[in-house]
Amino acid sequence: MTVRPEVTVALESRFRDIKVSEFRGRTRVVVEAAQLLDVMTSLRETHGFDLLVDVTCVDYLNYRDAANRFGLVYLLANATSAERLTVRAFVDDPDPTVASLVPLWEGANWMEREVWDMFGIQFEGHPDMRRILLPDEFTAHPLRKDYPLQGRGERHNFPVLARGEG
Amino acid sequence: MAIELPENVVVSKLDELASWCRKNSLWPMPFATACCGIELMATGASRHDLARFGAEVFRFSPRQCDLMIVAGRVVMKMLPVLQRIWQQMHEPKWCISMGACASTGGVFDTYSVVQGIDRFIPVDMYIPGCPPRPEQLIQGIIDLQDKIQREGTIGGAEFDVKARQQRKRPFVELPIVNASGLVLPR
Ligand code: SF4
Fold this sequence. Notes:
The complex is a heterodimer. Helix content of chain A is 19%, strand content 25%. By secondary structure, chain A is an alpha/beta fold. Chain A has a domain at 5-107: Beta Polymerase, domain 2 (2-Layer Sandwich). In chain A, the strands form 2 sheets. Chain A has a 5-stranded mixed sheet with strand order 1-2-5-4-3. A two-stranded parallel ribbon of chain A has the order 6-7. The relative contact order of chain A is 0.14. In chain B, strands 1-2-3-4 form a 4-stranded parallel sheet. In chain B, helix 1 packs antiparallel against helix 5 and helix 2 (36-44) crosses helix 5. Chain B starts with 13 loop residues before the first helix and ends with a strand. Iron/sulfur cluster is lined by residues 34-36, 72-73, 99-101, 106, 130-131 of chain B.
């Protein structure tokens, strides 16, 4: 469901540099990465967006007309009114960092760890910033566009067991 | 010199007798990691009935198994687990690589998927298909039984073939090309 106009109007009047757009009934706001935590707090406390559905990221390396390298995607839902809202924030190399949303939603914990694992985005204030899917000794962030599809030999790096051993 | 044998006595070789016992009671260890595992379950179920070939006793404990069936793709995080389970199984043991993914990585030529389990553990029988039908898996098990009967020895001398794994072809990796068509070093 589209978001009530008063929500976007309130956001636009309270935070500067916020861009609101709509596409096929879905509302999207683009915020400054530095303001993310404030915008999210206001959305949760004032406007009733009580559910963080997903956190993910897009790497825009070599993308046509892209101004920033990484675009974070936060999908929010209001469980009472069934509104859905997409919040986007852009961060850049070197050291892409954004505030963690774990203080607001406990559920952001693992989703932010996954984004760290796959894209190498740092979440400031995250209580437990470890890899979640890949093994701990993995050194790269494989969903970045400059990481080769076949990897850098990680998948070949095992001992070979022959018959009669073990 | 003829030896008088009483009735009901058959003379055979010890190797053949041991192999005959082994081949008719294979206990599979289902290492099912992906979609091929569903076909593996179907093979064990009533319609295809693996019990007809003496291999229906699936055990989830490696200590009780002697046939590992790797059904599905194995990722680099899973491979140490696979190797450990393989090492925990008692000799004599055999391994079936079921499906395109377990045998070669299949369509998943990506950073995380191991390109064929036979690069890291020994494999006796490969079953092609994506996924192989239960009939194919049964045929694979029958062929493995034939192989056990043909080559099996009571002391396990047939397992002493370390060179077999060293004949694998080298990896062929795609070049890494950047947006302007430049080939980058890996
Ligand atoms: S071979 Fe096909 S069916 Fe089997 S695990 Fe791979 S993708 Fe799935």
